[in-house]
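Worked example 2:
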Amino acid sequence: MNSNAFLRTFLVLFISINFGYSKAVKACTAEQNLKTDSLVAPKVFVNTGFENASPMNWEIDSAGRIIASLVYDHERFSQNRANGHWHFKVEAPAGTDVTIILQNFDNIWNNTHASQVSKHTPYVISFDNKTWESRPAELLPGNRLQIRLKMTGPNAYFAGVEPYRISDLAKFLTDIKTSKLVAVTQIGKTSEGRSLEIIRIGNEKAPKRIFLRARAHAFESGGNWTVEGLVQRLIQNDEQSKTWLKRYCVYILPMANKDGVARGKTRFNSNGYDLNRKWDKEADSLIAPENYYLEKWMRRMIAENRKPDLGLDLHNDAGGNLHISRPDGDIRAYLANMEKLEMLLRKHTWFTEGSTRPGFRNPGTLGEGFMERFGIEAAVYELNYEWVEGLKKAPLAADWISLGGMLPKVFYDYFENP
């Protein structure tokens, strides 16, 4: 072998050996990196795979904090978007210090930036998914909320408002159907095919009728708890409830936005429709079947001479006011009745927030739509989810249930002859 051939052979062997060595080094380094990653892998998991849980994206940052980005709920053909609902489970070993930062609260309403969180916003927490307590959250720059805690067990459930799920309603309906004072009738279906029910309590031949709707906006569970308290009190069948139900009969649509509740959404139905807007015109049966079937039921009630004498749409916000409708026309008698209703709420319940003032208008809501289209005196009753001044505390389900139990006396006195 001449010198040139020898040199070429040497170079080929040298390159092959080094290439193999380089591959081996890289493989070894990759294996070490995998081992390192497994050592520092987070011991915290955010679970959103259960009923009514919020859609969200999350990650663990370099400081070990959970950064939870909520997914906006969008209105159909609009800039409007909403985030006010959060409900998720954190899984981690007991004793773990957990910091959660919730973000994406930059809502848009009527082309204006808005937010459903403030320095007063609390959260509720449960370690068994049954018993809940309220705790203060911390408002961070950038319109974010921070929650800190030490895990006392392997699971902790978090929510903005104490949850009320479709399964809770199903159990409630099963329980109350045993009462002779209750009738539950299906009036239609939601966009995704879930049933819409009307609960009737009392004798439909009573001289007065009340209609209540709850949960038009998916996150506003306070209305459902209030309905439970109201119904439970009325079906006790004691002397007081018998007296009340001689004067009026109650009709309730307990959960208007079932699809939104099932999907953990904030405001709109599955088609991006706000069920508390556009009540100034007939609902589209495809886009808003939840409103369409309610209107169909209401027309039947009116045709049968059973038009409600009072309508209340139960909601949650950070104000807690009774929203008085002010459509065009002579509404002096209605305003006098709403003043009476406010007075009775103050007298018989812990309500102290008051009513919207004369300059306030909220066109398209159920309150104004019932007034203008059906001649039914109605209002939107917002239940404050941040702070109940009359109780000096952030509300939990038990507080709204107690409110519901006080409403029968309010309604009885409301229909008392002047």
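The CA atoms of residues 33 and 39 lie 10 Å apart. Residues 45-159 form a domain with the Immunoglobulin-like fold (CATH 2.60.40.3120).
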